[in-house]
Structures are given as C-alpha cells and as structure tokens.
Design brief:
alpha/beta, Rossmann fold, Dihydrodipicolinate Reductase, domain 2, 2 domains, ten-stranded mixed sheet, six-stranded parallel sheet, 14 helices, 16 strands, 18% strand, disordered N terminus
Length: 443
Amino acid sequence: MSTRMTRRNFLRSTAAGLAAMKTAPAYAESKSANEKLDIAIIGVGGQGNFSLRNVQHENIVALVDVDSVRAGKAFEHIDKSRRFTDYRVMLDKMHNSIDAVVVATPDHTHFHPAYMAMDLGKHLYLEKPMAHNVWEIRKLTELAAHKGVATQLGMQRHVKDNMHRVTELIQAGAIGDVTEVHSWVDSERGMYPRIKEQKSIPSTLDYDLWLGPVEHQPYDPEVTPYGWRFWWDFGTGEAGNWGCHILDIPFAALNLDYPTHAAADGPEPHAEMTTKDMHSWFEFPAKGRRKALTLHWYQAKGGPAILKEHGLSTDGKNNLFIGTKGMLLCGFDERVLLQQDSGGKWETKLTHKDAMGFNVPKETVPDSPGFHKEFLNACKGDSTAPTCNFGYSGPLSETVLLANAAYRSKTSFNWNHASMTCVDTPAAQAHIKPSYKKGWELA
C-alpha cells in the first residue's frame, strides 16, 4: 500500500495491499499495565470524540476525520503532522507507532478501517452496530479471533449496574423459564427525505472519502453528517442505531448468540430510506439450561401492543421478559419483577429500589472498571476480555441486521449462521453481503 494511492484505488485484496507493510506486527502485541498505549482515532468529529475523552490519558498519536471543521477542537490538541483526512494514509504512515485504533465513522465505513487495523495486529474499539451488513460483521468477528486482538464494540450501557442485576434475576430463575422477550425502541425516526436543490460540498469535507465503498450520490447536508443513519446505503435505521444497546440486555441475560429463524413485518419498505415502524422476531434454540425462546424487536412509537395488553408503562423501559413464573420489565436503569396473584392479576414483587420481601439473588456479575477501561486493560495484557468483545457482540450485531434483511425483503426465513445463508430465500440473501464500488472490493 502506498500513500500515493488514490481514494478510489482501494485494496482489491486487503492481504495483498498490506503485504507492503512488512514491518507491521502480524498479531497483537500488549503493553504492561503501567505503560501508555499509542492510540489512533478514526472519525473523531462525531462519536469518536466521546471515545477520545475516555482514552485521552493514553498517548493519542493520530486523529482522522474527513471533515476538518467537524473534527473541530479535537484536531487543535494534536500536531498537524498527526492529523489525517484519509485513514489509509494514516495507517500506511503510522502503523508501526500504533497499538490500538478507535473507529467511529458512519456505519457504511466501519468495515474497511476496522479490518485494516486488525489485519495489522492492532487492538480495536469499534462503534456499534459493528458494520453495515451481516457479512462484514462476520468477517470482523473472525479476523479478531484469528489475530488475537482485544476488541470492544461501543455498547457502553453494558456496564450499568441495573443490567447486571437483570442478568442475575433471569439466570437465577426469578421468572422461571423465559419463553419470549419483547424489546423495543420508542421511536418513529426514519423516512428522511432528501433536499431537492443541489448543494455545494463544503471545502473542508472530503465527500468522496466520506462515501467510501458506496456509489456516488449527490451531496446532501441532511444526510451528511447526521441523517445517514436513516438511509439504507449508509445506515441501518433504528435497528442498528439502538438495537445493539437494547438487545444487549436479553443477549447477556439469556446467553444468546445466533438465531435459527428470522421474520419481520411493517409498512411497505422504501428502497432508499429506513422505516419509521417495524416488528421483527427471531427463534433461538435451547442452549444449556435455557429453553428455546422467541425474541421480538420493535421500532414503535409508544412501544409494542403487548405492554398495553398487560397495562404496563414504557417509561424508562425497553425490554419485557416473559417466563413461566412471571415477567420482568426493565430498561438500562430500572427493573420491575411481576407475578400473578391467585386471581390472575399482575403484582409488583421487586423493583430496582425495593425488594418487597423478594429473595433477591446473590450479585455474581462483577463490576466493571469502566467500559473503555476494560478495553484499555485488555490491550495492556489483562486476561479478562472486554465485556462487549466481538465474540459476544458479533452474533448480537448480526441478529440486529437480520431484522433489517427480513423487513426489507418482506420475508421469513430459516437462518444457517455457519454458511450465512437465508435458506431458500434469495430476496433476504441479497441483503447479507454488500457489493462495493470499484476499487473498494476485498478478495
């Protein structure tokens, strides 16, 4: 790979392109706990600034953003020689001086920098939903395991105390065997229309690099830098935006990984814009002591209908576990355990504030030193893997994007995770693996 390469002349084969970096480590190296890490951040103008604040006590050796104005004050705190527009140039120039990389770009440009960083043996902190499609997620998950790098997906709510307590309640059998889970985001964001008049591209923005592997489209300030989330070419809708956070609760509590069936319904899918409303569901087989169950995901203003059926409020909540002995309604910071009395009425038996005589299980989920700290510790050789490492967050992210595949194709399909196949459902299969514009393909 050469710094003279054009943006369009990307790596046809990442392995071949990186072969020129002969001095790069093939596998991850760790520093001692007392040494500072050398970190590069790609996409520092948006969510990357959040990570910058959380790792700024380490050595920040490079910052990358396609928009020098959006990068703002972050760029002001680093020498001009270590500010970059193109992450490929940065990795080419500085790969020997980097221990770890943070990637916080829009969804459609997660994969390429993340793959390149790990292929160089760099530890990786990556924003959710890991990538733009299932194939990319699987490739990143496999490469992380092969390279032995520390990884963390940006699901920072995972370390909240309430989420730990929910996991303990479910795994202790507080509501019996869980048969179904209903998870939702209370939102109607989506269907963002484009502006009609042509707008000029700001001189501070490298728009071609912002597009990355996506075919050229006219610049639209409503899409770049924020509204991309609600356009299929760039984002993954509220499923990708919130699904990884919200489904983290049942995935952790129930030890979920890959579903065997996926389906969805909702309004007629738009070819370009993400939906404002959808319902998808997944079948998970029995695993260990856990019985088979159905997981529902909703994007629904006011929450799913099942809440009204039971007279439950959505305030502060986003998950309803239904078991053979009761229900657990929870969110990131609150929980309510309910059981039926002899007359069939649901009664509150436990909240996050009051045990109400309930026999609360022993706290077994250890406290986190901090979400970013988990990652930094692992980079420095701590044997404890970050809690949202790709071995855990990869299958979760795939499930989130299978919801979009089912919705966009208007299908129901059996999912063979080993071969990444929507069995006998070519319409859904079309959304599993991307097609990149010329110059951005991977062999």
